Amino acid sequence: PGWANLAESGGQVPAAGQAALGLDFNTDRLQVGTERATLRFFSNDPDAARIEVPVRLRVNARPSAIGFPQLAGLGDSEPLVIDLDTAFGDDGRADGEELIYELLTITDPSLIDRTATTLVGNELSVALVPDAFGQANISLRATDPQGLSRVGAVRVRIEPVNDLPEVARPFVVSVEEDSGPVFVLLREFFSDVEDPNVALTFGLGTLLPGSALGPPFLDGVNGQLMVGLLPDANGVEFVPVRVFDLDGGMIEVDLRVEI
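Request: output the structure for the sequence above.
Response:
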């Protein structure tokens, strides 16, 4: 065939001897796949006047990256899983042969937890860093059984989930009896994953009847609360405070006033 040529077309072999023949292959015009041919040798040996040698040539190609696969999810979600055989292909593989995958780099380790991310066979499980969101690329290498490889990437895009504000420290103030109004900077007591403290706004719930506290005054935008004390009041009272983030998330927490 045109893709296989013997270096020599004839020669002599001494009795009980042997000779090596060079067979050259040329795959320039061949497609990926398997080519077959038969070499026939004729000699004056009456016991083996004709010998047929089957030749099989397998034309391989590097694995190919199929598009640019993306994994999308929400922050704080379970690990994202992808079958890498859907991201890489290899026309030169024989039936039953598998690509071998290797994780190379992650562009944003603040989004993806490298230590908890696993690659088993062709399944990549991507673990996310809690409360993180954004975009990152995972670089991988796919290698076929013949050692040819291709580097590709999987893009991970995580949308933020609105986390509610949280109490950052005990929401308690202590004052002396008949000491006058209590002033509280509410932002000092709260935090939020997505929003800075200065973006939080505040409101008031309903005070319980019979409270020893006077009518509260709240600057909800600046987070400043003033609570008056009734004369001779003492004990423990509670002021329900509502905390709002930029996305409309709200929690209600009781401010404990110890008199």
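The two ends are 101 Å apart (CA to CA).
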